[in-house]
Amino acid sequence: MKRLFSQGLFAALALCAFSTSYAASSPEVEALVKEGHRLFTTEKFNGNGRVCETCHVAGGKTAGHLPNGKPMPSLMNAAAVFPRVRHGQVTSLEDQVRKCVGGAIEGTPPEYGSKELGALSVYITSLSEGKAIELGGTPQ
């Protein structure tokens, strides 16, 4: 039974990998990646003047730091490590984006299901293209 589960999980992950690479080439997804990048680099979310890129440098592609100096990893594998469990709480990528906007940016987080949160999630997910899935892993 355990082996059957492992084979099923492998097949599901392989299908997801195929679907993701196929979807990434669609014009709709590319438009969302572009919009997510725009939001990531310019949107202040009615906050303190910071944008996502203030802490997540170079569009999230290199390590950065919080305003208090705390190091921030790049987001190059962020989508591959979510959802994460900390202190018994499950945190999705969307939860983390909203936490960052409400925290370091001191802004109004985009609503769940909004086009803005969707575009940001698609953009951040695009940075994980080709990365191994490591649910609960450490951002690089």
Describe the structure.
With 140 residues, the protein is mainly alpha-helical. It has one domain (26-126): Orthogonal Bundle (Cytochrome Bc1 Complex, Chain D, domain 2). It contains 7 helices and 4 strands. It has helices at 2-24, 27-42, 52-55, 57-60, 78-81, 93-102, 115-126; strands at residues 64-65, 71-72, 84-86, 89-91. A two-stranded antiparallel sheet has the order 1-2. Strands 3-4 form a two-stranded antiparallel sheet. Helix 2 packs across helix 7 and helix 6 (93-102) crosses helix 7 (115-126). The termini are far apart.
Summary keywords:
single chain; 140 residues; disordered N terminus; two-stranded antiparallel sheet; Cytochrome Bc1 Complex, Chain D, domain 2; globular; 7 helices; 7% strand; mainly alpha; 4 strands
Biggest β-sheet strands, sense, barrel = 2 strands, antiparallel
Order of strands across the main sheet: 1-2
Overall mean pLDDT: 84
Intertermini distance: 35 Å
Global Rg: 16 Å
Number of helices: 7
CATH class: Mainly Alpha
By CATH, the architecture is named: Orthogonal Bundle
Secondary-structure element pattern, one letter each: HHHHEEHEEHH
